[in-house]
C-alpha cells in the first residue's frame, strides 16, 4: 500500500493506494487516474465550475469485460470529505443532500483519490448566493442503437448542427467516451430548464421527421435498433450529463473528449483514451472552450455597466486580458461612493480581483480590516480615476490612492498572502498583507485584511501610515484612534468580565490561519456554557458571558475550596456536564441552567454534576494579565491550578489542527477552537485570532413567536418562530418544531407566556407562517442545530437544543 501526504494549492491531502489497479484491462492505477485529473484540470474545471457534481465511484476498480464491477452512485458528499471541499444542498424527497462543487484542483484530486472516475453535472450552475440559475448550455446526447457506429452518430450530429446554427447557436461536439456523441451549445441564461428541454425535444423530433429511418426521439429502447436516439431529456434540471474531460468507468480508460468538427468527418472516428487526450492538450487546447466563454470572469462587471453611460472601461467580451510577463500589478482606489471605502485590486489571470475595504489597509499589525469581495474588474482599471455619474453602479468620485506591483506567496480560494510595493512617493510603501476569507464565497464574501508582523524573509515589519481619506480638496477627514485596554482589579467590574469571543470558521480556514501563526494552538470545544470565575482566595463566584450571576446555580463549583491558592484571580472557562461515557452533554446541562429553587438545584446537581474546564486567566494575584500573550497566560493558569483537582479541569492543547479535528470527531465532541498563541485577551471582542470549528452546525436564535400545536401537541407549543438580528431588525429565520420533550415544552410555555404581545417582531416573516402565530417580545435566546441556511436566510432542518439564558438577543450573530 502506497500512501503520501501532499500539499496542493495550499490544501493538505492524504493520497493512498496509488498503485492500486482501477482498470485491469490496461493496468491503469489510481496514481495514473490522479495524474490525469491533475493535468487535465485547466480544461475540465471551467465546464464543471459552480455546478453540483454527481459521481460514479469504483473503489475496487472497474473490473474486466467478463467480470465487470458495479459502481457506487454518489450524490451527497461523503462525511469524511475534507472540510474545505465546497458543497451546496439540494432538496430531495428523502431530505437535503450536500453535493460537491468542483472549483479547484485540490477538490478534483480528492475526488480522484476516492475513485470518483465519472463526474456528471447538470446544465445549470449555482449563483454566488447558492441559488439555482437557469441553464447556460443546451446538450443533445446522440446515442447509437444496436448496429449503429460512431461515424453514423457523427452524421446525425452534423444534421443537428445545421438546425442549431439556423436558430443562432453554434454547437460543438464531444465524443462521450462510451458509445455516442454529445453536442453542446451556449445559452444566455434567459430560459428555464423546462423551456430548454422543450426546444431540444422539438429539435430531436424535427430531425426524426426528416430522417425517420436513422433517427428516433422516443425513449423506448425497443425502437432504437439501427437508429440513433437523440436524448433531449438531459436538459431537464434534475438530469446530469457526463462532464467534458471526465473519465469513463469502462473496461478501458476512455474520456468524454471535446472534438473538432473536422475530426467528426473521419470515417474511422473512435472514442479516445485518457493518454490520447493528454497528448492533444498542448496542441488543441480546449475545443469546447467557446461554450463557456460567456461565463468569463468579467461577466458580472459587464452586467452592471453600460458603455457610454460611465467613464469606466467597458470591454467587449467577458474574458480577461492575456497574462503579461513580469511582476503582477495592483491598485488601491479611494472611492467616495454612497459610503467612503477603498478598493483593493490585484492582477490575477488577466483581470483585477477586487475587494472593497471600508477602512483601508490597516496601518498596524494589531488591527484587521474588513474586506468584501466584489466583481472582478478589467486590467484597464489599474489607472482609472474619475466620477461615476449618479444613478450608475458605484456612483461617486474615484481616485488612485496608490498603485504598484506585488510579490505573491499564496493564492487560494480562502487565503491570499502577498507583498505590495506602491509608488516611490505613495502612501502605502512596501507592506506584506494577508487576505483571509471568513464568510461566504465569491462576490460579497467577507474577508479580513491583515498586516503581517514580519516581511517575507521573517524580519519584523514596521507599522505604516494610517489610511487617511481626503475630500476633493485633499483635506484629511479620518484618522484612526488607538485601542484602549481595561485595567484589572481585585473586585472586577462587569466590563472587565466580558469574555473574549471566537469567530466561526471552517477547518480549512483555521488550518490556513494556524500555518501563519507560530506554534499553532488548538483546544477542544466543550459543549457547555461559558463561565467566568472570580476567585477571592477561598471561594469562586461565577458569572455568565452576559454578566448573570451563576454562583447559586452550580454549588459544586462555588461552595467548596477549589485549591486555586490564596490570592485573587479571574479565570475563563466552560461549565460542562458529562454523560455516562464521560462526554460533554448539552441536554444534561440544560436541566441545570434554568433552575432557581435551592431544592431543585440540589436534586439536579446530584443527578448531573458539572465540572469547570478552564482555558484562560484574566488576572492572577491581583495583577491583570490580559495583555500577555496566550502562551504566557497559559503558564499563569497552570501555576494557578497546580493544587486544584476535580471539579476543576485544565484540558490539554494540540499543536496540529487536523489531528485535533479528527480527535474531536472521534470522541463525539462539538469541535475545536484554534487560537493564535501570541493573542492577547481582548475583553468583549469577537476575534479572528480565535477560530471555532464545529462538526455540527449550531445557531443561536431569538424567539419571536409561537405556532400553536396540533394533534398530540394540541394545547401546547407546536413550533417556535425564530430570528437572527441584522441591521434591518430581527430577520426571520424559520420555524423550529423538533427536539422538544414534554418538560422542555412546559418550560418554554412558562418562559414565553409572560412575553406575549400583539406586535410582530420579525422582518420578512412569510404570511403562511404568520397566519396563526402568537407573538412574543424578542427577549429570550435559544440554540438550534441545523443543516444549512437557505439563500433566503431560513434555517433548514432546525432542531431545538435549548434555551440560552447566558446570552442576550443583541449578542446573537449569524454563524457561517
From TrEMBL:
<keyword id="KW-0479">Metal-binding</keyword>
<feature type="region of interest" description="Disordered">
    <location>
        <begin position="454"/>
        <end position="486"/>
    </location>
</feature>
<keyword id="KW-0548">Nucleotidyltransferase</keyword>
<dbReference type="GO" id="GO:0003910">
    <property type="term" value="F:DNA ligase (ATP) activity"/>
</dbReference>
<dbReference type="InterPro" id="IPR033649">
    <property type="entry name" value="MtLigD_Pol-like"/>
</dbReference>
<keyword id="KW-0547">Nucleotide-binding</keyword>
<keyword id="KW-0511">Multifunctional enzyme</keyword>
<dbReference type="InterPro" id="IPR016059">
    <property type="entry name" value="DNA_ligase_ATP-dep_CS"/>
</dbReference>
<dbReference type="Pfam" id="PF13298">
    <property type="entry name" value="LigD_N"/>
</dbReference>
<keyword id="KW-0234">DNA repair</keyword>
<dbReference type="InterPro" id="IPR014145">
    <property type="entry name" value="LigD_pol_dom"/>
</dbReference>
<dbReference type="InterPro" id="IPR012309">
    <property type="entry name" value="DNA_ligase_ATP-dep_C"/>
</dbReference>
<comment type="similarity">
    <text>In the N-terminal section; belongs to the LigD polymerase family.</text>
</comment>
<keyword id="KW-0067">ATP-binding</keyword>
<protein>
    <recommendedName>
        <fullName>DNA ligase (ATP)</fullName>
        <ecNumber>6.5.1.1</ecNumber>
    </recommendedName>
</protein>
<dbReference type="Pfam" id="PF01068">
    <property type="entry name" value="DNA_ligase_A_M"/>
</dbReference>
<dbReference type="InterPro" id="IPR052171">
    <property type="entry name" value="NHEJ_LigD"/>
</dbReference>
<keyword id="KW-0233">DNA recombination</keyword>
<dbReference type="InterPro" id="IPR014144">
    <property type="entry name" value="LigD_PE_domain"/>
</dbReference>
<keyword id="KW-0808">Transferase</keyword>
<dbReference type="GO" id="GO:0004527">
    <property type="term" value="F:exonuclease activity"/>
</dbReference>
<dbReference type="InterPro" id="IPR012310">
    <property type="entry name" value="DNA_ligase_ATP-dep_cent"/>
</dbReference>
<keyword id="KW-0269">Exonuclease</keyword>
<keyword id="KW-0540">Nuclease</keyword>
<comment type="similarity">
    <text>In the C-terminal section; belongs to the ATP-dependent DNA ligase family.</text>
</comment>
<dbReference type="Pfam" id="PF04679">
    <property type="entry name" value="DNA_ligase_A_C"/>
</dbReference>
<dbReference type="GO" id="GO:0003887">
    <property type="term" value="F:DNA-directed DNA polymerase activity"/>
</dbReference>
<dbReference type="GO" id="GO:0046872">
    <property type="term" value="F:metal ion binding"/>
</dbReference>
<keyword id="KW-0464">Manganese</keyword>
<feature type="domain" description="ATP-dependent DNA ligase family profile">
    <location>
        <begin position="603"/>
        <end position="726"/>
    </location>
</feature>
<keyword id="KW-0239">DNA-directed DNA polymerase</keyword>
<dbReference type="GO" id="GO:0003677">
    <property type="term" value="F:DNA binding"/>
</dbReference>
<keyword id="KW-0378">Hydrolase</keyword>
<dbReference type="InterPro" id="IPR012340">
    <property type="entry name" value="NA-bd_OB-fold"/>
</dbReference>
<dbReference type="InterPro" id="IPR014146">
    <property type="entry name" value="LigD_ligase_dom"/>
</dbReference>
<dbReference type="Pfam" id="PF21686">
    <property type="entry name" value="LigD_Prim-Pol"/>
</dbReference>
<dbReference type="GO" id="GO:0006281">
    <property type="term" value="P:DNA repair"/>
</dbReference>
<dbReference type="GO" id="GO:0006310">
    <property type="term" value="P:DNA recombination"/>
</dbReference>
<keyword id="KW-0238">DNA-binding</keyword>
<dbReference type="GO" id="GO:0005524">
    <property type="term" value="F:ATP binding"/>
</dbReference>
<keyword id="KW-0227">DNA damage</keyword>
<keyword id="KW-0436">Ligase</keyword>
